[in-house]
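This part of the workshop introduces the protein records we will be handling. Each record describes a single protein and holds just a pair of labelled lines. Instead of coordinates, the fold is spelled out as a row of discrete tokens. To make this concrete, we reproduce a full record directly below:
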Amino acid sequence: FDKETFGSDYLAIGNFDNPSVLEHSPLSEKAKADMVRLFKDERHYLSDIPIEQREAYLRNITYWTYLKKHAGMADEVMKVMQSSARSVWAVNIDAFPAHAAWREGSPGFGDLNLRREGIGYLRPEIHENIFHFPDGNASVARLLVRKMNTSVAIGDSMEDIVTARFDYNQLDNPKSSVRIRLNSTVVRAQHGKNNLSNPVKITYVREGKAHVVEAGKVVMACYNGIIPGLCPEMPALQKTALSNSVRAPMVSTNVLIRNWRSFEKLGIWRVKCPGSYHHRITLDYPVSIGNYEFSKSPDEPIVVHFYAVPGKAGASAREQFTAGQHDLLTTSFETFERKIRDQLSRILTPGGFNAARDIAAITVNRWPHGYAYGYDPESDQVAYYPNSWPEGKRHWVTGRQPFGNISIAATDAASNAMTESAIEEAYRAVNDLM
């Protein structure tokens, strides 16, 4: 709890369904009781809604509305919960459907059993993403690159990829059957003589100069929302469908600290900070793979992950995404560093942490166009769970149709920002050109 939002700084350690955890917090007595009730999660608050109408109803209200109107949560509790969907969905709960919150296991739905075509179904069990590459999806990309160009790095397995050193000079080697040219921004993809059976001319800008290459087949795996601007000859219907792809901004920052004794002393490894710029701080999961070994002792260095989702609450999801992108454009590294030092100091100083002494390095990963979602302009809704959307509203399906010798991939084409979707859409896009 930060003093700017809740009146005073307070680190609550433990689960919120335990009354003693919040006993000395700055929350009012009603808010404390509401928090315990919410996180005990023993019941739902839709008894006045007919069973057969509950699913449709939850799809048409936000999680914020459900907690405030139906569960009767205090205003302070709403401040705690406002950022609870950011880590997974990069949005505040006032723009997050209640049905999606139920589906992902958010508190407040208790024993709610929704029905679909007369068949009841329950929420799936939620698991932590403990099993992952230490550098995230970067290892997946590195594995693919090394498979296509073996001269880039030594090794041949998942175990050796994390610590493999890449020779970037080999990426664009003329002798390689697969060449990757970095820092080259495509600004146009157009069939020769506007004939869809002709090869595609690709115009890209590198070091301030425009270059043109010709390709028999092209897969566009970029942010789908910009494709209409890159392909002027594309039909209007497909352009409109592609423009309904939206992306959520986010910031994932890695902070290397010289030891994690302060975390151990306080008995914490993950901190949720609902009122702060970084809403979640967590020690790296204990993953060892190949020659990479996690920090085994509190006296050893460790990476601390910081997560932030820019964009203020109080607007639709798309408006929050746009506001967040504008915010990131004007946020300097110095601002991130200042916020990180301040936040860590306020949380960890009681455990002996000293920011000037203990922070060794900071890497800020800004994703102004991060998670990809489909969007319906008529309802102003974002497709968080695309498979449950009506067929006629799945604009990403219309947008991803092959266009002459151009096919379209990326997670936008599935409205699902997961690695497996990126792979599946790439596979489909290649086959579309066969």
About this structure: Residues 30 and 168 are 59 Å apart (CA to CA). The chain has 16 helices and 13 strands. The radius of gyration is 24 Å.
